[in-house]
User: What shape does this take?
Amino acid sequence: MRTLLMGVVGSTAYGLATAESDEDLLGVYIADSREVLGLNGANVTSGSQVTTKPDVTMHELGKYCGLALKCNPTITELLWLPEYRVETEAGRRLRALRNAFLSTEYVRNAYGGYAVQQAKRLLGRHEAGKEGFSADTAKRTAKHGRHCLRLLLQAQQLLRTGELLLDVSAHREDLFAVGRLAAEDPEAFTLRFEQEKAALDAIDSVLPDHPDREAVDTLVIDLRLAALAS
Assistant: This one.
């Protein structure tokens, strides 16, 4: 395997890291051509490799592009980082095509849908914690609360401009305040969340209706042919 692109994602990239935050690395690799062409090729191109200490998640080019075409938030952010630990020429070509992965429907579904899912989960914690809301649970709830709002803010930016607002440190104070609401005042959190979700739903998107799958497919083929020839 050969790494094409790898960088620091998560709270560090968002400008929301705290003293307790871990460093999370995400990357794309291209599998050995012999493995891709062999009987196990389908499994190889849909593979991932995950390690801890440090926390590193690597996706094979095929799997990465499939997830990116659905605007998976964690996957998408890799293409918008300001700097990389590893960036090959193939990685630069992948980054140059980042807008081809975007589409209105998938941004709304992936970012907005994931934020709604997370909001429901964290509000469920209040129900489970009626007889004792531990400090640890409160901390996790606050973190999920601010990330719910962060997802909505990023989705709004994507729909309005076609660009991902990755570093949300300018909103840090507000995001942490919303996180505290998630842990301490679920009704107030729900009101703020619903306001931001309504704002997202009302945006007249500049993104295309569908991603440019043909352009992405052409790039994947080109990179595999180049790997085969090398």
About this structure: The mean pLDDT is 91. The beta strands are 2-9, 24-30, 48-51, 55-60, 86-87. Residues 30 and 61 are 5 Å apart (CA to CA). The longest strand covers residues 2-9.
